[in-house]
Amino acid sequence: MIVMDGWVRRGSLGVISGPKPHLSCKYKTMRALKTLLIILLSLLALLVVLGLMGPSTYRVERSTVVAAPPEVVYGYVSRLESMKQWGPWQEMDKDQVQSLEGTDGTVGAVWKWEGDTVGKGSQTIMSLEPNRSVRCKLHFVEPFESISTATYDLQAVGDSTMVTWGMEGENGFMGKVMGVFMDMDKMIGPDFEKGLANLKGLAEKEQADKAAAVAGKTFGGYVIETIERPEMVYVGKRSKVKFSELEKFYGSSFGAAGAAIGTAGLNMAGAPSGVYFQWDEKAQVADLFAGMPVVAPADVKLPGMEVYTVPASKMLHIAYYGSYDGSMRAHMAMDEMIQAKGFTHYGNVIEEFITDPMAEPDTTKWLTNIYYMIK
What we know:
CATH class of the largest domain: Alpha Beta
CATH topology of the largest domain: Alpha-D-Glucose-1,6-Bisphosphate, Chain A, domain 4
Strand order of the largest sheet: 13-18-20-19-15-16-14-17
Largest sheet: 8 strands, antiparallel
Shape: elongated
CATH superfamily of the largest domain: START domain
Structural class: alpha+beta
Strand content: 35-45%
CATH architecture of the largest domain: 2-Layer Sandwich
Order of helices and strands: EEEHEHHEEEEEEHHEEEEHEEEEHEE
């Protein structure tokens, strides 16, 4: 064996051997790969543990009290177009593209959106319980896909409404992992608070406007509506009757009119009514027509009956509940409104007896529609 500068020549075979520097590099590379694999396996194990530890479900909710009844608030949570008015995310991306499919305010209606800031998604109405609750399916497509349920619950609190807005769903594996590090309540809760504040402002303004409108047509404790009433043809009897005999006159006239209408094969156009021409408090006498409205021309003839037509006209209307002898307060309220509004009363006063006193003994439930012709 001859040694030459670190190289070894072995015998006559001419085999030369020397140091092998690449062997140590391979060991280092394998050691690094092994370390990296251990790290990756450790991270994977950590993810699995976090996935097992993370919450399987989530719910975020906020509540507020709105100074308006449930039927007013319900209008803002049961219609997708109305939700857009108070939703906190509308201002984030005013250039977002939106569309509405189906009939708004009904189960199955879908609202879709797409924008740079708000991402892409849809909201579908799943169930509606008028003035109590709404459930919607939220499908977020971008920036990440997820499905949640939006909940809107209403509870009457006196003249106000407690409204609770929530979002809930189930966490997948990655959702559970993220749930360990992210607090959805803190992330989304402030947006819910902002949205409910918007909703409160809109609903309370609507209620205030309604209250003002009602106050403007309330006199003597009665809400008086101004309507356009169509022409009505009555079959019955007209007479000047003492106040003490009004009930008897009504009974006989209605009975006779009903029999005549039945014989003639005519259809009723409303409830039995008293059409007044004059009410004389001093003499205690009323000039009135007691009869039944019918579907017939004004010149219809029925044997033994009189026919009177009240022309189509603008009228004031009060839905009066109570016994007949207490209706004078409603008539006084009519006079008060006519004077306050500068109307002119002419023609007839009509009392339409909706409730049959023989079928309903509770006089507080008796409904009488009172009409005054005005111009």
